[in-house]
Amino acid sequence: MVTTKATVSGIEDVRRARSIAERVPDPELPMLTLADLGVLRDVELTGDGTVVASLTPTYSGCPAMAEMRAAVAARLRAAGYARVRIRTVLDPPWTSDWITESGRRKLTENGIAPPGAAPRGPVALSLLPTRRTVPCPRCGSADTEETSRFSATSCKALWRCHACREPFEYVKEI
Amino acid sequence: MSDSGNDSTHDDDHVYLSLAEGHDDGGDARWAFGTGFEDPLYGVDTTVPAGVDAGELAATCVELADDALVSAQRLAQWCTRAPELEEEVALANIGLDLLGQARLLYARAGQVDGTGRDEDAYAYLRDAGDFRNVTLAELPNGDFAFSVVRLLVLSSWRLAHFERLAAHRDPVLAAIAAKGVKELTYHRQYAAEWAVRLGDGTDESHRRMRTALDQVAPYIDELFTAYDVRGEVVAVLRQVTEAAGLSMPRFEPARGAGRDGQHTGHLAPLLAELQSVARAHPEATW
Fold this sequence. Notes:
A: alpha/beta; 4-stranded mixed beta sheet; 3-stranded mixed beta sheet; B: mainly alpha; 11 helices; 0% strand; disordered N terminus
């Protein structure tokens, strides 16, 4: 396995490592990169040439974390970085606000409604009917309703559109 | 577009190829125990801050992890048995969040209690008497209404506790709690909506909600003995029962003492099922 070229400056090197880590796809939403999803918090280069990539889980029980760690490490090694370390960062906790504009666009293009703004601070229990609008990612209609607040992955809810009659998933605000 | 080159997705970026790459890398046996990739706190700074009692911190982590693991196992038992497919998915998702919280908390306990145990050692290699979960968590699922009321009470109690733990002097526990708060808010909302739907539904659903409240009530005081956030939990119960047209349950003095390792007969069979594979095939890798 080759080590990084001594001619490459540290700054360029960390930039290259970052762009490699950023392009790793999310295992559960493969249309998104880890950068799109906002789970890649940082990529650094230490004094001894180790690339340190920091990842944060979306939900505590996210079963994809181990795969993300493995994929980032494998990509970086394949790109010639012999020393790779993955850090888990829990603080501050991930919020759906960290999904990038590009990520939101890709979600919509793939039939998944992107999240609205995440609540800040404690959320009081509300038992009043909530009439919020999530536009259908397929036809754009606002005539949609929630079928279930929980779906195939932790981060999504299940909705359906009355206009095009298609079900769709919706990334929850958190 | 705001991004430049970073959002270009090549064919070779496909997730399955990237997973295969990991396999081909000889030094990366990530499916085996002990590689670290499965450690939920992999790469987290493990230092215990000065002034934090490591024993107390570990005990708190184990208690909260046990509540979550036992609850997650009960919630998983609703699979194929819930009234609707959507509810099975919801209950399994809630269980998955709690399982994730349990994993992080066990991992933290193992770092600070001096034993170096991993999450599996806590989950699979302890007996019922070693578990510190509150007894409400271990009771059988019973009627769907019972599970709804239990989830409402446990999630409200845990949420109020986690909101305080988010300011804990141990940064790892504080971070686990801050993350959990967001998840528990969803759990409480789900349970509260079902409680109102059933309480304010048909005569039959109303009757079963009333029965469920009476069944859960004797176990609520034990929660406040473990961690007293009575005000918040009672406020939620009052809000929900009023909206559902139900009367508030009558609290009785604590019956169980799960935090002392005293459990009902329901915990041991639950753990036997949970632990059977891990104990039959110790150190198994796949």
